[in-house]
Amino acid sequence: MYPTDYRYTKDHEWISITGARGRVGITDYAQRQLGDVVYVELPEVGKVFKRGQPFGTIESVKAVSELYCPMSGEVVEVNASLITKPEAINTAPHDAWIVVLALSEPGEVESLLDSAQYGALVK
Questions:
Q1: Residues in Cβ contact with 117 at an 8 Å cutoff, skipping those fewer than 6 apart
Q2: With contact defined as beta carbons under 8 Å apart, do 90 and 36 qualify?
Q3: Is the domain 7-106 a CATH 2.40.50.100 member?
Q4: In this structure, are residues 73 and 53 in contact, taking their beta carbons and an 8 Å threshold?
Q5: First vs last Cα of the chain: how many Å apart?
Q6: Where are the domains of the chain?
Q7: In the 8-state DSSP scheme, what is residue 44?
Q8: CB distance 94 to 28 below 8 Å
Q9: d(Cα 23, Cα 100) in Å, to the nearest integer?
Q10: Any idea what DSSP says for residue 50?
Q11: Residue 68 is inside which H or E element, if any?
């Protein structure tokens, strides 16, 4: 259910790493807990975050939740399509990325969960 080439946080974010960049989103489990997503607050390009730091919020019909950075880095791209179509997160949570980070601490990936570990966490 959870892509095996992604890494996961206990806060239900995923990161897909390609080279020195990581694409970040929320997991299927997270979007099911939230319900219908109606708004995503995106950070500014160029903003730098440390691992575990909030980088935005996601709002659903049920709740508003903070989004936490799975790894340290600088935001180099945001998924602006989520401004007008936040429901894409419900439709395809493992494709609907939120930000792309230029990773500053690549070794942090070792502290993240793999798909089997994450699946066991949310079982």
A1: 8
A2: yes
A3: yes
A4: no
A5: 11
A6: 7-106
A7: P
A8: yes
A9: 4
A10: -
A11: strand 64-68
Compute the distance between CA of residue 70 and CA of residue 53 in angstroms, rounded to an integer: 8
CA quadruple 77, 5, 13, 119: dihedral, nearest 10: 170
Which amino acid appears at position 101 of this protein?
L
Read off the pLDDT band of 1 (50, 70, 90).
confident
* Edge-to-edge strands, sheet with 99-103: 7-8, 13-18, 21-26, 99-103, 73-78, 48-49
Question: Which residue type is seen at 25?
Answer: G
Helix (H, G, I), strand (E, B) or coil at 97: coil
Per-residue model confidence (pLDDT) at position 102: 98
Per-residue burial over 39-72, b if 16 or more Cβ lie within 10 Å, else e, is: ebbbbeeeeebebeeebbebbbeeeebebbbbbb
Structure tokens at 1: 């259910």
Tens-digit pLDDT profile for residues 53-63: 999 999 999 99
What span, in angstroms and rounded, lies between the C-alpha atoms of 79 and 59?
Answer: 16
Residues 6+ apart with CB under 8 A from 32: none
